[in-house]
Amino acid sequence: MSGDDEEHAVLLNNYFLTLNRNSWIAIGVSIYSGPCCFVLTKNDGQRYPTCWSVADGRDALTIDTWNPIRSIYLLANRENVWANIQEQDIPSRMNFDVNKTKDWRPFFSHSFPRDNIPWTSVQPNDLHYEETRAEDVAALIRQIDDILHEKFRDWREANVTRWHSTCQNRLREIVKDKEMEFIKGSIGTDIESKLVEFQGTHNITGFSLQMPYTTIQAIVDSVHSTNIFKHATNDIQFALAVDIHPYPNNILAVWIYIAHLTKKS
């Protein structure tokens, strides 16, 4: 996605507004990137606000020790812009009630009212998501799978490329659950048990790749960068499986599982 932190923060903030969340664009300092923009949300009854990264969507409460935001000096929403004038700018030590003028200085005030400025917006009032067609996803899975198998043969043109069909079928079963496991935080917890039938006769090395779908070439490049195909021997078999988890509006999460197997002596 193109754009800088400021534009991503506006986009994410507007998305939260469509969900009727209390949200602000925030400017501060992150331990990862230095000066940055992010989004702050605070639900009714929520004691500590949540900081949202506009780069990867990860969140942390202002009191969490793992929160990468180390200082906050400005908040903004559709009502006003507030400068932090508290003695502290560390999120865990700050008060986030912007109505307290001893802590937050508003840009607009009675002497400089917001309503005196004409406001226009290029944003649509409603967000309309298209349904992602299951048949399109299935066709894309087949296309990516065929291309990757062909690329493996091209990359190994000096050697024979053999596929372990039984293991490959098992990987296809495993990869279908990857996205939901990832969402639930249980990814990779039981992979070995699902491949136990092959471990008695083969040494297996494998891993999964996950990426948002942009282009097929980007997927090919990601698989190529792993160098798993670089085995200058014919005494090896490969297994590869592809799955795509669809989200609304043609947002696609691509999962690829790749493994190679060698027979035990």
From TrEMBL:
Residues 2-107 form the CEP76/DRC7 peptidase-like domain. Residues 145-260 form the Centrosomal protein of 76 kDa C-terminal domain. It comes from the Eukaryota. One of its GO terms (cellular component) is ciliary transition zone. One of its GO terms (biological process) is non-motile cilium assembly. This is Uncharacterized protein. The lineage of its organism: Eukaryota, Metazoa, Spiralia, Gnathifera, Rotifera.
